[in-house]
Amino acid sequence: MPKYWMISNRNVQANGLGTKRRILTYWETDNSAVDVFSNWRPVKAAEFRDHLLSEASNFPPLDALATHEDQKHVTLFVHGYNNSWDGAAKAYRAITDRLFTGDASMGICVLFTWPSKGSPAEYLADRSDAAASAPDLAAILAELYDWLLDRQKLGARRPELACRAKTSMIAHSMGNYVLQKAMQFVWTRKNQPLLVSLLNQLLMVAADVDNDIFKSGETVDKSDGDAIANLTYRVTVLYSGVDEVLGLSAGLKHFGKRRLGRSGLDDPAAVPDNVWAVDCTPFIRDLPSHHSAYFDSPEVGNLMREVLRGIDRKILSQEFQLLSSG
Question: How far is CA 325 from each of CA 224, 237, 238, 250, 309, rounded to the nearest angstrom?
């Protein structure tokens, strides 16, 4: 089975994936040089799904685990703006190598790469492309939701066939805007009222979205933040005030609220109970490129692992001496 997995709505070119939105394509490779396009093998959607399900079926069954924290994951990584496809692939490999490789592997990680322009000058165009890509990500999530619902019903009758993997997502920068809009699509179509959580854990890293996105709190108002909170068991926001890129983002936009990934939650006391935020400044202050430094910091990498495992936030705050809110 492949080691690296990729889904994309970018146009396919001779030497890579482009910056135009096209139909979803599916890719697999065992080669660690994931930024070399010739190393990837295109597969049909059904073949990709079957391979992924086959790999996940080899995970240890839940009832054989000492604790639920040891259950494996199928995690989707959504990159941010200013990422060419090969840049996104490199970021994906870094996450895979840190969290999804070796004896301590958390399971499987899949890259979703959308047509970011790959240039800071194209910021506003990237925001438009991010919104346009939301239905494509929503289609993936909706299929996952239907599969989870079916497995839940099947597992109730035959426990040995219950799902062996948790589902989770890591979204970076403007990838959170793609996520935000995609979750609204899914919740509107699939999950009102709530039937099953789509994601067990969601990590919103340096999120380029409004920091009052969860302002509805425990009130159901069918907003984007409401959709995210209702479709996810726990949402963890990683932010830092030293993020220069999100400072530029706020300056370029001249609309909306402050950036969630730079300022944290607008009002931590007024968000849903399953949403919290961590100030990662102590871990990334001395690293270059603060906007992406989360993936270079060993401390943040360890924190991501424990968050995905589902460790209680109070314990995490104690173990990592976190500056947390929410």
Answer: 21, 9, 11, 22, 20
For residue 326, is pLDDT > 70?
A: no
Q: Do 278 and 303 touch, CB atoms closer than 8 A?
A: yes
3-state secondary structure of 110: strand
Please provide the size of the chain in residues: 326
- Give the whole-angstrom CA distance, residue 186 versus residue 60: 29
Q: Which is nearest to 74 in space by CA: 180, 169, 183?
A: 169
Q: How buried is 147 (Cβ within 10 angstroms: 0-12 exposed, 13-18 middle, 19+ buried)?
A: middle
d(CA 113, CA 98): 19
CA-based R_g, the chain, Å: 19
Task: Look at residue 155 in the predicted model and tell me its pLDDT.
Answer: 45
Whole-model pTM: value is 0.92
169: which strand partners? 76, 202
pLDDT score for 156: 45
Which bin fits 254, alpha (ψ -120 to 50), beta or left (φ > 0)? left
**Pick among 3.30.300, 2.30.29, 3.40.50, 2.40.30: CATH of 4-325:** 3.40.50
